[in-house]
Amino acid sequence: MADTTDIREDDPFIRAGEYALGALEGDELGEARRLLLADQGFAEAVEWWEYRLGSMSEAAGRFMPSPSVWPGVLARIDAEDASRDSVPVSFEPRRQSPWNIAALVAGAGMAVAGLVFFIATPRTVTLPQQPPAATTPGPQLIAQLDDEDSARKLAGVIDVESNRLALSITGLEADTGKTPELWVIPAGGAPVSLGAIPQSGSFDRELSRAEADLLVAGSTLAVTFEDDTGQRHESPTMPILLAGPLDQV
Amino acid sequence: MTDRQTQLIDALTGTAAGNRGSLQTVYEMTSAKVFGTILRIVRRREVAEDVLQDVYVKVWRRAGRFDPSKGSPITWLCTIARNSALNDVRRNGRQQELAEEEFPDVADTKILAADDWLCAEQDSAALADCLEELRADHRRTIKLAFFEGLSHSELAERVNVPLGTLKSWIRRGLAGLKGCLGG
User: Fold this and answer.
1) Among A41, B17, B48, B114, which is disulfide-ready with A243 (CB 3.0 to 4.6 Å)?
2) CB neighbours of A168 closer than 8 A, spacing ≥ 6?
3) Which three-class secondary structure state does DSSP give residue B18?
4) Burial classification of residue B75, based on how many CB atoms lie within 10 Å of its CB (0-12 exposed, 13-18 middle, 19 or more buried)
């Protein structure tokens, strides 16, 4: 029967366990919260305890929530998204996304004008050359994926008629033995690998019929780092580096 | 890894990529368990459902941060749920609408059928074994803190011991778990 007799009152690992349990209160809770923000070692210890203790969570039992909870989740997500989109008028300069599509479509009945990427930062990422669209090009799907924190970016264009995928990639440098891998996630489905992609630059290839069937408006493109085995992987390794929806132009 | 565990990781991956259908799959697979975690702490169904909504909005926003190398997805979800429920209790107090008898006995961590268990089985078995090695009063207070979200002073009142004694039990119990689990 374990009973550790010598426990330092200020042992931060044990204090992290008390915090993860939720037992701390008053000044002790305040100090632990301060440490959580200021001390990475303490934050990692809290995470360690949360995962270890959390493995008994399922013993709490199953209780069915009301049917109204799920629609409520969607409504709250929609409300939050709407509040993010409705930015109040301000004279302060808003930070421009370094990865905005500035112009996409010329209008109904007109040819697709092409994709123009407005890059606010000095570094310009250009799309791969598109096949000439002399008269009436077929529909295209686009996705723009970026992460401002890491400066990783990927722009994807799928030409539906010619079954071609074109990518422009920035900042996906992987550790030795790893490679960026592209995924398509059908609405409500599991991720399917589209194979390894370059760490930067342009990339263009033909799509198989099965791939083209998955690459439809509403699906999601995502990128992860995977072991560079030369093979497509069955499921992605978290974390997701980039993700974004495919939209029809 | 079981098919259900793989399915849940896939759904969480889709959620991280912004796929609402995947979030619905995560919800359908886990909401009853996550609700159990919350309900034990806040003890009032209406409040617990508000917290449950909040948890899945957080899952929608944070799914990309889930790292399967650190633990199973249900553990990650229930940790978000526990922390959300604890924050609610700290802000608004606890209302005992539901009695202890309405919940399964947490002394038995194997109350679910194996095919219903979403957590990595070896992780939960390791913790269960290590908990069994603790003194009974240490084990009991750690479980009470975990499942009911009770603070030191609430625990001391519940088990009717001085606060200093209670804190010592918790700390010694955690030290035992740390040694046993290799922390």
Assistant:
1) B17
2) A125, A126, A127, A128, A153, A154, A155, A201, A202, A203
3) coil
4) buried
What is each CA distance from A118 to A40, A127, A201, B25, in whole angstroms? 37, 11, 17, 36
Contacts of A132 (CB under 8 A, 6+ apart): none
Residues B8 and B88 in one domain: yes
Gap between the Cα atoms of B73 and B82, Å rounded: 14
User: With 80 as the cut, is the pLDDT of residue B102 above it?
Assistant: no
Residues facing A153 on adjacent strands: A146, A170
Chain B: give the shortest CA distance to residue A231, in Å. Answer: 19
* Domain ranges (residues) in chain A: 10-87, 100-248
CA-to-CA distance for A55 and A61, rounded, in angstroms? 13
Whether residue B28 is found in the same domain as residue B87: yes
Q: For A185-229, how does the pLDDT look when each residue is reduced to its tens digit (9 = 90+)?
A: 877 677 888 999 999 888 888 888 778 878 888 788 899 999 888
ipTM of this complex prediction, to 2 decimal places: 0.86
A212 token code pair: 């083209």
* Through-space distance between the first and last CA atoms of chain B, rounded to whole angstroms: 24
Q: Domain count of chain B?
A: 2
Cα distance from N-terminal residue to C-terminal residue, chain A = 67
Tell me: domain A100-248, CATH 2.60.40, correct? yes
Q: List the single best residue of A1, A31, A225, A238 to mutate versus B (max B Cβ within 10 A).
A: A238
CATH number, domain with residue B48? 1.10.1740.10
